[in-house]
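Onboarding guide, step 5: your first structure request.
Type a short instruction followed by the sequence, for example:

Predict the 3D structure of this protein.
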Amino acid sequence: MMFIGVNNSFLIASEKYTIKFKNKVALTDTKYISRNIIGTDKIIEYSFLKGLPNDEILIDTIAVYSVLLNPDRDGGDERKFYVYVALDKERKNKYVVVDSNNNLDFSDDKQYVFSMKDYSLDWEEKCIKSSEVEVNFVSCDKNEEKPLKISLLLSPFMSFFDEKYYSSKEEYFLNVVFLTNQYATGNIEINARKYIVNSSSSKLDTFEKKILKEDSNFYFFQENDTIFPLSYCVGDTVSLDGALFYLQKSDENHLYLESSGFSSDSCFVGSKIPCLYAKSLYGNKVIYLNDLMKDKYVLFDFWGSWCRPCVASFPKLNMFYEKIKNKKEFMIIGVALENEKDLDKTKNILKEKKIPWLNVWSDWSDRRYPSSIHGKLKIEHYPTYIMVDKSGTIIYRSSGPLNTNLEELFYNIIDKIE
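The system replies with structure tokens like these:
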């Protein structure tokens, strides 16, 4: 049997792995799941609905919508429910009632109240401000009716279209959408590193059926990761802890993987650093980093202004810098992953934290490209630290907060070059 070394650990070549999944209901702050948006259809005739709120003193504008969960489903067993939405006269609050028990009567359902000022929030904050709702249906299985509860996320501040497509601001504000709130999750351990694997599907008509579906996407990440991971499908190859794993197949609740050796990129301990390019924070000039690294020990800090653990590590990195600032044989290079529009924020953080070492940046939209610095080094977790020796060989790599192993290696190198 052949053994492959990865980060001072060992992985059995061609070993097969099985990940078992189970269905879960997401919370509003559940990380790294893909939610599908379910739109609403405004209805004009709704006299068949009972118990609609009727407060003429408070309420100014109302709308009633139908929500169809399985638009592509043939035959019966339609899954539809209704939603009441209203705005108060002062446009301070938005009121939503979901016929969650599906009895066509709103009088026995919960009323949700949302502040209109929350329209200014970003996507993640809007998701957190959303409300979990559970809608009751009857499922027909083998001519037997069974109760079915489907968990959804009511998002009152999002709409299916941009504001410009609506006839008025009131029409836009009256809209709500629902987000799928169920997902599958499993886990896998590679060389003592634990990875969580979340899965989701675009199919909306089989909530109660098999867990994994033909179009399921899989997201591999670790508990402390701070960036949304890349998605993979059956037939793809994923890199975990410097090794490649082929996603062979899936059934109703299992994903089957097979190890296929090292990553072909120079991204793991013991390999030579590839040619690396990044952009200057000042002037947007492209910098060839390998020229700066010649005959030097280099500590790379892969971070982002959006990553709190990254910024929290700066004081410790500053201590490292104080030890090497007068040593020509050692340097620190920070590589920020950013959107161009956020570069002012990046610069302000570096100024506020008084960061003296070189920092460059790479565009968020380029992180998937194999030719980018993040693609070549397979940086998917933040912060990530990589140490390179004077010959250009990677001698250390870790993700998450700075640890004692890196600190010990750092001071051992300092002692060598004094």
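Each response can be followed by summary notes, for example: Helices lie at 123-129, 169-173, 289-293, 308-312, 314-324, 343-352, 373-376, 404-417.
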